[in-house]
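Example 3.2
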Amino acid sequence: MGGMTPLLRRTSRTSPRPPRERTVTLIGKPGCHLCDAAREVVAAVCAETGAAWEERDITVDEELYRRYWEQIPVVLVDGEQHDFWRVDAGRLRRALGA
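Structure, written as tokens:
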């Protein structure tokens, strides 16, 4: 192929975003003891890792209620379901890349 340099094909591995660029969403409802326990775990892990977190209430969001009422509390990481019922701190840390 006289003088032509073949194109190198790169296989790029996207490095995961650091925890401070991730968002954890806790979906639950008031008066739920499992939600209270999950909130403590989420708050502690997010404080430790620098990840942002938010809480959504299924009693005021019909779509969330329809999707998650049997699973609360539900934890999402960057909008994707991570866990439900019981939240494991170590597993959440790993999901955040910490």
